[in-house]
Amino acid sequence: MGLIAVVGFWPTYFGPLVTGTIAQPLLIHIHATVFTGWLVLFLTQAILAATKHVTWHLRLGKIGIGYGALLVVVGLSTGVMRSSRLPLGGEAEDLLFAATADMVVFSSFFTAAIVYRRKPQVHKRLMMVAANMLLIAAVSRMTFIPPPPAGLPLFLAIWFLPLIAAMAYDWRSQRRIHPVYFMGLAAFVVRVVAIPIHNTEAWGAFTRAVFALVT
Known about the structure:
Blueprint: H1 2-19, H2 26-50, H3 54-83, H4 91-115, H5 120-133, H6 136-139, H7 152-174, H8 179-193, H9 201-214
């Protein structure tokens, strides 16, 4: 997941950050810091659980609940602020829909993971799906992927890669795939299929209403 994020955002963020040529507003820096921090937190929690440091995993998990909520707030805020600076009639609606849809899917699986935190086999898979959801933004910025429809199979293959790897691990170790992964796969597919919603009049009206509140 970390590699996908770095490759996707290297041309527009991480590369310029390393070379000292980055020119992004404060909002983007906050967004990047929070979302990168989420991947670090997710990795840390996975390592703690895998090495049987469950007590520390649970302690850090309490912080993680608040961090996940912060991530949703930052994700939605960034989506609204960035899209409000784009022209209506296409670009603004598209970006606002993407940010909203991503946060809806993420928060759904993240909330479910909190509810099932006492059932490790379910909890860890829900967290896996939630974290994987966030990679759509990184994959969409990979310049070597052709635009759709030609590039859609490669786009989906890279985005779904962590989830498919987890499903393959389940099959290899247990000869079955946990239902959570199928739900995640279905949610990702719905997220892609739902993209045309941003072209509807209803979403346009919603977008204008949101912009009226923030401008």
